[in-house]
Amino acid sequence: MAEWPEVPLPEVLDFREGPGILAKDFRDSGVPLIRLAGVKSAVSILHGCNYLDPDMVARKWNHFRLKVGDVLLSTSASLGEVTVVGDSGVDAVPYTGLIRFRPADDRMLASFIPIALTSQSFKQQIQAMGAGSVLKHFGPLHLRQMTVQVPPIEDQRRIMDVIGALDRKIESDRRVIAKLEQLGAAILESALDLDRYALPRWMSDRRLGDVLAVLETGSRPKGGVTASREGVVSLGAENIQSAGVSSVEAFKRVPATFAATMRRGHLQDEDVLVYKDGGKPGNFIPHVSAFGHGFPVAEATINEHVYRVRGVDGLSQAVLYWLLRSRWLDREMRKRGTGVAIPGLNSTNFRDLPVPELQDLSLDRLNASLPALLAAMLRIGTESDRLKSLRTSLLPALLDGRVRVREVSL
């Protein structure tokens, strides 16, 4: 039996979904319109935002403006992402699909709201309503039917001390990975001879396929795969975000007997992974990540929608990773994967991607500096995933009384 009472959510939380705003109302500057990318960003809530005319906001959307400490929950696309509004988000407006939460009375601390919204009980209610399955959206109508656990204020503070310590470390890891990602990109760019348009000079006699030792996909059994604790992990589109970063909690797996028969698609340390199929019709969106050092798991295969990529001797996996994640090759992949009914990048087009000119001295410098960054990102990602797993198992125990907050120390 739960230690704390379940209270109808609207009794203790004030919430409002952001407005639906048409693209024609976007401006080049003005009041930030917070998007899902900002909620998910490791750097800034303003990442990927649009802008609105201040006068129009004052007339139509002033009551949607955000305050410090407001909590945002994503309710479509990446369901269940939660972030707290800081100074940079003050007076911004959240877009539709993002719901703003504040305390409705003095029974719940504002700082406890993210814990309530990420609790297992809250997630189970979402699943029970079918949100995130056939319909990828839930909103205020669903929230009015939901409950939240409300401990006494003093216990809220104690739970926040425990979970907050984990959250701060997870957030710190996320920011370090983001900074390492940016540092690697800057090191690569510094080694290239860019023209006045900040574009690299491409090699005239070589293509990407000339510097690859491995380019292959994996497979899965007929009937597909499901989330399970049995078998060998099979990584697919949902797992390809970036090195050290993954939002997936439950991995899909193939039977061990099937994995043993796979001739391709078994992953090795520091394999670069590219999601080769994706986006909307006529708009291919590539994703590049990496595997290894325990991230996202110690052993895995890939399915038929993911490329496993390795470079030839003399080209480190880290250099290959940042090349494929560069804005130049991202643009080239989008061009080659777009224009078909089902967006995707076949192996011929992938091998035909251009390669920037790199002097031997510059390549040696990249091979010496980038591998340590990639390895660090993967190791930190592994640590972060373990902390997330600990948080996931500890929070329900704290909320239902199996673990008393007075008994926990970190």
UniProtKB/TrEMBL annotation:
GO biological process assignments: DNA restriction-modification system
Q: What is the official name of this protein in its record? A: Type I restriction modification DNA specificity domain-containing protein
Task: Give the organism's phylogenetic lineage.
Answer: Bacteria, Bacillati, Actinomycetota, Actinomycetes, Micrococcales
Pfam families to which the protein is assigned, alphabetical:
Methylase_S (PF01420)
Q: Where is the Type I restriction modification DNA specificity domain?
A: 2-182
Q: Does the keyword DNA-binding apply?
A: yes
Q: Carries keyword Chaperone?
A: no
Name the family the entry cites.
Belongs to the type-I restriction system S methylase family.
Give the superkingdom in one word.
Bacteria
Keyword annotations for this protein, in alphabetical order, are: DNA-binding, Restriction system
What is a single molecular function from GO for this protein?
Answer: DNA binding
Q: Where are the transmembrane segments?
A: none
PANTHER family attached to this UniProt entry: TYPE I RESTRICTION ENZYME HINDI SPECIFICITY SUBUNIT, TYPE-1 RESTRICTION ENZYME ECOKI SPECIFICITY PROTEIN
Species source reads Agrococcus baldri
